[in-house]
Amino acid sequence: MVSWRGSVEEKRAPDQEEGQRTLTPGNKGAWPEVQARLNRLLRGWSAYFSYGSLATAHQAVDRHVFDRVLAFLRRRHKTPGRGVRRFSDQIYGNPGVLVLNRVRKVSPTCAL
Questions:
Q1: 98 near 42, Cβ under 8 Å?
Q2: 9-13, 42-46, 53-57: which has the minimum mean pLDDT?
Q3: What is the DSSP secondary-structure string of the chain?
Q4: Which partner from 10, 18, 39, 99 sits 20 to 30 angstroms from 32, CA to CA?
């Protein structure tokens, strides 16, 4: 029998830790790396919850992601105010943060 003597923090999966650290103040990665990690998480979330009516859920997630990314960039660059004009091109530019409402919805290819 194998027992675990570590703390709860040590038991977490690496993916959970990566997802939790993406937009935190301690993240010192370059913006393209942070953006790529965030896009991976959003694509995974979108694929996992791809059944049913998605428009309102995607709008809510897009709004929340925009607010969190804006706060992250504002903290990182220490700018006063909300920062919408300054950072909106970085958030939604090319390449930008994935917007779930623009993700092409593909129906399953197999028939029951």
A1: yes
A2: 9-13
A3: -----S-HHHHS-HHHHHHHTTTSTT--S-HHHHHHHHHHHHHHHHHHT-SS--HHHHHHHHHHHHHHHHHHHHHHHT-SS--HHHHHHHHHSSS----GGGSPP---S---
A4: 10
Percent of the chain residues past pLDDT 90, beyond the cut: 7
Q: Cα–Cα distance between 2 and 27 in angstroms, integer?
A: 35
Judged against a pLDDT cut of 50, whether residue 2 lies above it is answered with no
Q: Distance between CA 60 and CA 27 in Å, rounded?
A: 24
83 backbone dihedrals φ, ψ, rounded to 5°:
80, 15
Cβ-proximal residues to 68 (8 Å cutoff; 6+ apart), any chain:
23
